[in-house]
Amino acid sequence: MRALMLRMRMHANTLNAHAPAGDALLEFAAALSDPHDALATWAPGSHPCGDSAGHARPWPGIECDAPAGSVVGLDLSGKGLGGQLGASLADVETLRSIDLHNNSVSGGLPAAWAGLRFLDYLDVSSNALNGTLPAALGSLGSLQHLDASCNALTGTLPAAWSGMAMIEVLDLSHNQLTSSLPESWGRLAFLSSLSLRNNSLEGSLPASWSAQTQLLQL
User: Fold this and answer.
1) Which residue range or ranges hold the Leucine-rich repeat-containing N-terminal plant-type domain (predicted)?
2) Do 180 and 202 meet the contact criterion of CB atoms below 8 Å apart?
3) In the chain, which stretches have pLDDT less than 50?
4) What are phi and psi of 144, to 5 degrees?
5) Domain map of the chain by residue range?
6) How many CB atoms sit inside 10 A of residue 217's CB?
7) Which of 76, 146, 77 is nearest to 113 (CA)?
8) What is the pLDDT of residues 100-122, one digit of tens each?
């Protein structure tokens, strides 16, 4: 009896530990439209990562770290989703990868996602995103791949994105961006692929970009 009670307490503690991530994901889903019920099994009281006993499977589109049972990936690409991107995803602090490409999501990129300090992959391409690029995302120091191409993003290229110290691939092509290339981006030492085509950019390549020894595609 005592062993059973201990197992029940351990199971409850595991659920409680992941409750913030589950709540944040449900709030994120609530801001989306889901005509094909891709998120129908995301439900309160269930666990985003299933459970260690295998009685419940992870929610669709969720990738988990097996030993820790934490949410590390979100892949909802090509699910026909609409609505907007919710800031609550920033509360899933263990996220390393977000793939939302090929949907119909509108609105802007949430500045709050700047708090995802482990995020290394972000793909929101081929949606209907509009608004400006949040300067705050420059604090994503672990980000290596960012694709926001084929949207309707406007405004300037944020100088603060020079803070993306690990960025290797940056694709902002096929948007409505204006202004010149930021001098500060010359400090992106690992940038190997940058695509800005089909925008309304002006000016010449800044002299500071001569330090871009890794840049192979521009």
Assistant:
1) 22-65
2) yes
3) 1-18
4) -110, -30
5) 2-211
6) 10
7) 146
8) 999 999 999 999 999 999 999 99
